[in-house]
Amino acid sequence: MATTGQVIKCKAAVAWEPGKTLSIEDVEVAPPKVHEVRIKIVATGVCHTDWEYLYETGKGMKFRPFPLVLGHEAAGVVESIGPEVTKFSPGDKVIPLFLPQCENCERCQSPKTNLCRRNWSNTQLGVLADGTSRISCKGQHVYQFLGVSSFSQYTVVPDTSLAKIRSDAPLNKVCLLGCGVSTGYGAAINTGKVEKDSLCAVFGLGAVGLAAIMGCKAAEAKRIIGVDINPDKFEKAKVFGATECVNPKDHSKPIQEVLVDMTEGGVDFALECVGSPPVMSAALESTTDAWGVCVIAGWTETEVMNVMVEKILMGRTLKGTYFGGWKSVQDVPKLVDSYMDRKLKLDEFITHNLSLDQINVAFELLKSGKSIRTVISLWQEKTKPGVATF
Ligand SMILES: NC(=O)c1ccc[n+]([C@@H]2O[C@H](COP(=O)([O-])OP(=O)(O)OC[C@H]3O[C@@H](n4cnc5c(N)ncnc54)[C@H](O)[C@@H]3O)[C@@H](O)[C@H]2O)c1
Ligand SMILES: [Zn+2]
Ligand SMILES: [Zn+2]
């Protein structure tokens, strides 16, 4: 390609400082270094975690350096490859990964975990393997969120943080497999190991929670109870397989007691997809004694959850999930196949399609509870804000 080896000038949404809206800037994206791949991002989802890092950094989230390009749920096409890259070629369709799979480390070789630690400390600090970012703006380095930064028309990622996917996959749909949908679906299937005919409760009916419901349904759970304080989410939850929905605000008793009553003893599996410590405690307490399993998918880094010890003594298990337990490089292409075979829903998560310069609208829609997922097309002209495309 004509751009190979050159610095690419393109548009990106830059977060200059925490708590401030993103600004669309002209950025420069350097060529990939050894074991790196430069990607043209075609579409990116907007995840709750992007919002958290912008508005909660230093609060519920650890401090991350700014300026920063957010975005970590995306799909694109390989533009060029750096030295020693063997598994990718220009033109390949790919999904960048905030969780790598290097295949060599102890974690990758264990079937017990998906938590590869390759480049972990660097990507948490917003830089690649050599300690620098490939994106700069106005002569200043801009950090790469989780080593990805998909709110940019081009980005560079390590070759161990990239999944090659089939060439007929629609990138404006499968981008959702880069985070939210994979996380929720895997939280139920891989981490919770939800069983046939079980009773389940899913707390939080955003994309992660709806995907968890989809996972419970795939596992043939008998009852799947959706819990959310926003009743507008209930209709969608039923599309994904919720058998009933509950709004904690409609009850004078704590929600865990309501669920224990509804199920005559508690659910077998509770999945927390909100990111709130009190909701995490409620999820654990809504499970049955003897074998109840509570999976935490919601994200918070500096807050503490209360665990009533007796709940654990009486046989309950508390687990957490990162990226739904999927081994990213090998499993994401399989999830794409499941979507293409109509075994996995993706279109139903997408409530809005917007362009990059409408990215702040996407954050507002997410925070006000009006969207499930907005997909940002990086190369599209502005559309009417807030157009729903159910
Ligand atoms: N574990 C992981 O690897 C991983 C990956 C992606 C996202 N996450 C986290 O998952 C969580 C959900 O992400 P999302 O994109 O679906 O978010 P979202 O904002 O779209 O959905 C959150 C939902 O929780 C509901 N909610 C808020 N307070 C509630 C309460 N007290 N009780 C019940 N429901 C309540 C909201 O109304 C909303 O519907 C976030 O914390 C996000 O950071 C974790
Ligand atoms: Zn995410
Ligand atoms: Zn590894």
Instruction: Output mean pLDDT.
Output: 95
- What's the end-to-end separation, in Å? 37 Å
| CATH 4th-level superfamily of the largest domain | Medium-chain alcohol dehydrogenases, catalytic domain
Main beta sheet: 7 strands, mixed
Order of helices and strands: EEEHEEEHHEEEEHHEHEHEHEHEHEHEHE
Question: What percent of the residues sit in helical stretches (DSSP H or I)?
Answer: 10-25%
Which blocks of ≥5 consecutive residues have pLDDT under 50? 386-390
CATH class of the largest domain: Alpha Beta
Which radius of gyration do the C-alpha atoms yield?
A: 20 Å
Give the name of the CATH architecture of the largest domain.
Alpha-Beta Complex
Shape label: globular
Helix/strand/pairing class, anyone?
A: alpha/beta
Percent strand equals: 15-25%
Total strand segments = 18
How many domains, as an integer? 2
The unique ligands bound to this protein are: nicotinamide-adenine-dinucleotide, zinc ion
- Tally of helical segments: 12
Q: What is CATH's topology name of the largest domain?
A: Quinone Oxidoreductase, Chain A, domain 1
Describe the protein in words.
The chain contains 12 helices and 18 strands. The relative contact order is 0.15. It folds into 2 domains: 8-178 and 346-377, Quinone Oxidoreductase, Chain A, domain 1 (Alpha-Beta Complex), CATH 3.90.180; 184-321, 3-Layer(aba) Sandwich (Rossmann fold), CATH 3.40.50. The radius of gyration is 20 Å and the shape is globular. The protein has helices at 48-55, 106-109, 120-124, 171-174, 180-192, 207-218, 234-240, 255-262, 277-285, 309-313, 328-340, 359-367; strands spanning 8-14, 23-29, 36-45, 68-69, 74-81, 93-96, 135-137, 140-144, 154-158, 162-164, 199-203, 223-227, 244-246, 269-272, 293-296, 317-320, 350-355, 373-377. Helix 5 (180-192) packs across helix 6 and helix 8 (255-262) packs parallel to helix 9 (277-285). Strands 3, 5, 6, 9, 10, 17 and 18 form a 7-stranded mixed sheet that branches. A 6-stranded parallel sheet has the order 13-12-11-14-15-16, sandwiched between helices. It has a 5-stranded mixed sheet with strand order 1-2-7-8-4, with no helix packed on it. The chain has 390 residues and is an alpha/beta fold. Bound molecules: nicotinamide-adenine-dinucleotide and zinc ion (ZN) (2 copies). One zinc ion binds at residues 47, 49, 72-73, 179-180. The site of one zinc ion has 8 residues, from helix 2.
